[in-house]
Fold:
Amino acid sequence: MFKAIAFAATLSLAAGAAYAQAPNDAQIAHIAYTAGNVDIAAGKQALTISHNMAVRDSATEMVRDHTAVNDQALALVKKLGVTPQDNATSQGLAKGGADKLKELGALKGAAFDKAYVANEVAYHKTVNGALATVLIPNAKNAELKSLLQTGLKLFKEHQAHAEHLAMSVK
Structure:
């Protein structure tokens, strides 16, 4: 649990540094897409490692929902003719996600399940906070802003689900 919290704190600090200047729409699109990919990879890892049906069901939902939102984001940037712009926050998310996958990959059984679910709670809190306080308020394009708002609503549900699941995974 401590490492999941440390991971979330690291993401918050990296995001805070990158947000010293408001991100533009191309950077926002890249950050949101990268955040989705990080959770998709974590969900796929859980489907490979976990034997707990509640954890597997949650991971399936994460992969499905984040893939759908990322597909919508790709269609939107294509429609708008925008090229997502890599940035320090996206890079921090990708690196943090890869580090977390490595850490979780060393675990098995109940230890993996507990760590994966704790990470899902911490990660969604961090990403939802960034969506609400930085990405949505700074998005200039109305369609991008709407997609981010829809994603935030869904990802708040993910956070609540992960928090509930964390109480039952021992």
